[in-house]
Design goal:
41% of the residues lie in helices and 23% in strands. It is an alpha+beta fold. A six-stranded mixed sheet has the order 8-7-6-5-9-10, sandwiched between helices. A four-stranded antiparallel sheet has the order 3-2-1-4, covered by helices on one side.
Amino acid sequence: MKRLIAKLKSVYREKPHRVFSMYLNTDPSGPEQQVGDWKIHLKNGMNNFESYLKADGDSEEKKNFKIVKDKVEQYVQDNELNLSKSIVIFATADEEVWFAERFQMPVETYFYWEETAKVDQLSQMYEQFPKTGIILTQKESIKIIDSELGSVLDTKRFMLDLITEDWKELTSSQNEQEAIEFNGELRPDKLEQRFEANRSRLYKTFASKLDKLAKDKQWDSIYLVGDKKEAQDLIDNMNKPVTGVVDKNMLDHNERRVIEMVQGDRFLGSIKQ
């Protein structure tokens, strides 16, 4: 996203070409948002530009805007049943610029048809909610959420095989119950004893995996969620700095809820331009 923002900042189009920028709040829970209000805002925003361009009399610019308008409206129509809290779009008629994304955070509704892309709100959103890794621990089970701008990009789940002392990533077809077979030869009380006796060393081996993931995923911030002793074992052995620790067991919570909890009340507020 940082590279995208930098690229958008470099875009410049002179008349009759322009850059379209749109921030559309589609959050149904907004205090001033009635059902379907965003459709009215979208229609009015587009109509206002068309009226201005008609009065200006530049047929080439009007044609360019119509190309962008049709593409934007098609994107919105295609995604109408899967909207979240906002849509952000940047576009040019020649399609050299086309970015369209639905976000899990509200924005202030604005439309622009200017020489440059208006990235202020998007930049603010990224500053508040950058590329983040959230690591949830619960003894021999660890889940990792890769997130950006409040959305889940990817999740990974690992289980510790206490027989071989290897951390094994679960495939999409596996669930944790199946993975417990790793440790099936050990009684629950023996498993607990063995884990606690070797926890620091076992988490040390996982810390190197986290450092590699942090580098590969380009995390700007890292949060650990789980038992504070387990979190400290990881912190002590990680090279990457940890942004914060939440002493709660949320391993099986919905990923969206985890992100909201970790990033706090800021997540629920509007992003001001």
